[in-house]
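Please, structure for the following, as tokens.
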Amino acid sequence: MTLGEDWLGPTIREVASPLTQRMLRPLDRRCHTVQFSTQLTDADHRALAAWLSAYPSVTLRAYGAVPDLEFLRFYPDVQRFSADGLYDHLESFEGLGHLRPDLHTLVLGSTRRRLSLQPLARFTGLRRLYLEKQTRDLDVLAGLMSLTSLTLRSITLPDLSLLLPLTGLRALDLKLGGTRDLSLLPQVGKLEYLELWMVRGLDDLTPVAGTTTLRHLFLQALSRVTELPDLSRLAQLEVVHLETMTGITDLTPLLTAPSLREVSLVDMGHLQPADVGVLARHPRLRFLTAGLNSEKKNRAVRELVGLPGNENPTRPAFLDGDGDG
């Protein structure tokens, strides 16, 4: 199979120099990323940029052996850019200065040494940002007041005070790292989606109970968390996902969420069917996906609760679509 064919499937298009007509054939409507792993010629960058102009919702991704970001001078109109998988080669984010200030989405992966995030200061219209292990000049985040979605992976904050200026923030993902103090969470933006995944040392979810705009809560592998908070103040909370939450044995706090309609339990084999059966008492629950690592236990849960699982788990529309309003 040659480069440019759909060896990555319909969602990703791989290109390389020399560009071919097949690489630049029309994209499948499901395609979300066009990527390259080696430097293209200037002529190919120009051709790719012109072709991409017809696909403003598609992300341009550079990874692999791309040495710097100066090629972005050919892409002044790109709205979504990802520089992840450049661990061994990238030495600076300065090339980001070629991108438009109202860039929609930016993904910056980890690099061999921490690089200054100061070039991000110009992105006053940025809506979505993903950072992995990039902590140098992290205070630049406070000036990105158009952000609606922020993911921090393997980044530890002493608390959430840095995020308080982000008044429009609707989605926050904390993945890995060791941000244990969430006390300011209710004051961060207008959070509708919160994901906490394998945050080292985190043991207190009490601040979640005060985040009254929350609609979707995703908790995974928080080994020190032993109880869920009272959710009665979260009048808009509709979806809860619990995965590998081995310290949680009591699900009754979920009954306090007045609008809860969907619960997903994944890799929760430490629970017994009776532990989950209490959710049958929730008057508005419509979907329950039970993943107790045993078909026998899962079947028992279905009999106790009498609700179907959701084959297409609900995600906030603004996380997947173009609109953030």
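The radius of gyration is 22 Å. The chain has four helices and 13 strands.
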